Amino acid sequence: MAVLLAGVGVALAAIVVGALAPHRQRVLYANALTALAGVLVGGAAIAALVTRTTPHAHTGALLPLAGASLRLDALGASLEVTVALVVTAAALFSIGYAHGASASRPAVALQAAFALGVLLVPVAGDVVTFLSAWEAMAATSLALLLVEHDRPAARSAALWYGAMTQGGAAAITLGMLLAAAVAHTTSLAGMAAAGVGGPVAVVAFLATVAGFASKAGAVPLHVWLPRAHPEASTPVSAMMSGAMTALGLYGIARVDLGILTMIGRWWWVGVLVLAAASALYGALHAATATDLKRLLAYSTIDAMGLGLIGLAAAGELRAGGAPRAAATLIVGVLIALGAHGAYKTLLFLATGLVERATGTRNLDLLGGLASTMARTSSLVAVAVASAVGVPLAAGFVGEWLEIEGLVAGLAGRDPGGVAATLLGLVALALTSGLTAVAMVKLLGIGFLGRPRSDGARAAREPHGIVIVALALPALATLALGIVPGPAVAVAERAAVELGGMRVAGLRGDLGGIAVGASASALRPLALLAGLVGAALVFRVLARAGARGVRRTAAWACGRRELSARMQYTATSFAEPVQRVFADVLRPDVDVTLTHEDESRDIERVLTYQSSVADAVESGLYRPVIRGADALGRRARALANGSVHRYLAYGLLVLLAVLVVLR
Amino acid sequence: MTRDVVSLLQVVVVALGGLLLTGLMAKIRARAEGRVGPPVTQPLREVAKRLGRESPRATAGRAHGAVPMVLVVTTAVAAGLVPLVGLQTAGGAGADALVVVFLLLTGSLSLAAGGLATATAFGGMGASRAMALSALAEPALLVALAAFAVPAGSLSLPVLLHHGLSVPIAMVSPSHVLAALALFIVVVAETGRLPVDNPSTHLELTMIHEAMTLEYGGRDLALLTLGAAMRLGLLLALLGTLAVPWGIATSSSPLALASGLILVGVKATVLAVVIALAEVHSAKLRLFRVPELLAAAFVVASLAVLVGVVAR
């Protein structure tokens, strides 16, 4: 506990340093302190997991009514490791990256405060502490969006984000207070032990799911995410995507799976449908996006949708009498959140470097970075491998466990349960295929091939601490992918902690994972040995009698002058997917053709423009906003400036109150 | 020890068998069209010849040159992992269906990345098309494998094949047949055969797989051809084994392994002949009709899962 408290103290010091110190020292010391806080808190979480202890601390002084209480149980600690990794990487990155508005006093201090907020949410031990940490996280991230408030896009993103995050926080507060009132305690562990049921539980379930799902970017509450991520500064986007959205899922696991245990299974089926839609929608938009940060934002919606599928299916399976499959799914989600935190942080940070080196993050203008920014590109390749599920990278472990859990959940169930689980499996499979398109596009168009603009051509490899910040999550990705056993063993305890789930018979050791219930196993170390062995054999075979490599010009079907404009772009690469899924995406395609004056048979210029707007936003939110706007305009007639009228209103309200209280 | 031998044997068999099956399918097509056609061993000879040649490479990056090796190595490891000749391979219980799927996916993703790395129009075109189709083929493959896995309750290939051997009647259950059908469509798509892709096309605009390999030559091309052939051999043998697990060696006696070897060869050859004959009588689908075919496979696979669970 001492280490955890020390970490919190260091994070507080970082805020103070960020607010007071002059420019140079500010960026260096505040971020170094934040990174140190991440290391300390992450270390405390790992220590608690290894020693199988649940450290906790309580003070009556800090917060009103209930005091503040911190508690590191297996679930919180599992999440905290991910959050700490993201915070540390982002803070290290900021040391070498922060400039301009993002190095100003408020920006640096707010970023440190945001880091403290995300670090506190998983260790909060009671409702009041949880809500305070949650609000600190939400408010600071909202303020961070406004750091570059002179740009209209940033202001609009902040408006959207502010509405969604505060609405979500209100819903979460309502739900958690209702649950606490029924359980007669505000301690999260006490509420879980008491168990909350009845009609109040349903209201609390709906309110908290809506609030947490909006933070995790679930469709249709995702609209803030593709706006906020591109507008926030790079390290803030990384923390928002890698840590904050994951905390939305943590909330669902903690409150809805852990406390509202008596909720009916069909409520979870409803969440599952939402999650499936969310994952697919995010994956489709990620596959067609051309702006790097927008792509990553939609890919976050996709990854969180997959996590939500896992949690919802686990809730349904637990209520439907398959506790082992449920536990496997929870473990899978926790591992997947760790994997996502690592690879998404890396990708966001790399996007920042690319934007700084080339002046753009439009994939259609990038390319060829593999030769000019070789180290960055290699690290991005590791992240992409994890995202698409290449075995030996962390992403695969989470996906493997989730699919194992879903398949185990298919056996021996009633038709309704089977249909629900199958929906989860089908959505997961489709999403995984579409994710591969998005990620190959990111790597292949952005980093391979030839530069598509002068900016991309002039790119230079960054040096120093920013590369260290990228290497950290890459190492974590490989470590978790090659030796997943210990993490799985730890995460299983977290699943059992949620109650109603039996040990899934997961055995994790250095060699790999074994799922006892289904007798399947994952042996990444043996796989690695096999891959290395096969590579050596084929290398020897290929070398024997070969004459090496010759550099030539590309053949390109005999075409001589090959220009960079002849390459496929991100738009053209995604065109087949866009066409296949046109009904969902509703792309806006515009082709204009101008002719030569002499003849209409000879074309002069052909322009093709294609853009994909968010159909949910235009279909669902625009009418609501228009309606609210119209209502506001009408209401103006009520207030025409006449004092007599206002006095009449006051009299009417007074009469109404008297009638009601009579 | 015997497990390692089984795995090594399988890699060699899949490599040689894949090349020979490629040759056989070309031969069948040629004969059906009234031509003599190249000998069945032609792909084998071409690979052997090109392995001794230097590789012309058009790009400076390492990605382009690494692709053939990644493709061959991942496919070889997958071939060593899957129980084809014997039930127990070097992978043991780790011979998981998902690991095989994602190893193969790694190969196809690297091929697509290689196509984009060449910076030519055709490389990008092939990669774009291949990824769009793979985005639909992969889910169908996953769900079809889940349908095979449901009766045994496990995605571990030795476990689910063992279950299949112990309940032979399950081989003709509606769920099993539907899953095999879905897997068949996916295999046709994933190996780039008609009606999805024409392996013998010479017109770049109609290419999918070949477009990504246009900029490779010499040793690189030999490895790519070998990788594609191994993929064909592996997927056909896997489909044959999953559909009719009967005949796979359950013990490590040489006799059992020999009969397992012969039977998996027979199963794969039968499937290859069926696909080749079907190819003779079918034209290539329009590119944007292919998703409908794959979606059908996807629906059939989902139906297989549903029927399999509910009917029990």
Tags for this model:
heterodimer; A: 662 residues; mainly alpha; two-stranded antiparallel ribbon; 25 helices; 8 strands; 69% helix; B: 312 residues; 1% strand
Description:
- The complex is a heterodimer of chains A (662) and B (312).
- In chain A, the strands form three sheets. A three-stranded antiparallel β-sheet of chain A has the order 3-4-5. In chain A, strands 1-2 form a two-stranded antiparallel ribbon. Chain A has a two-stranded antiparallel ribbon with strand order 7-8.
- In chain A, a hairpin with a 2-residue loop joins strand 3 and strand 4.
- Chain A has 662 residues and is mainly alpha-helical.
- Helix content of chain A is 69%, strand content 6%.
- Chain B is mostly helical and 312 residues long.
- Chain B has one domain.
- Chain B has eleven helices and one strand, in the order ααβααααααααα.
- Chain B starts with a helix and ends with a helix.
- Strand 6 of chain A pairs parallel with strand 1 of chain B.
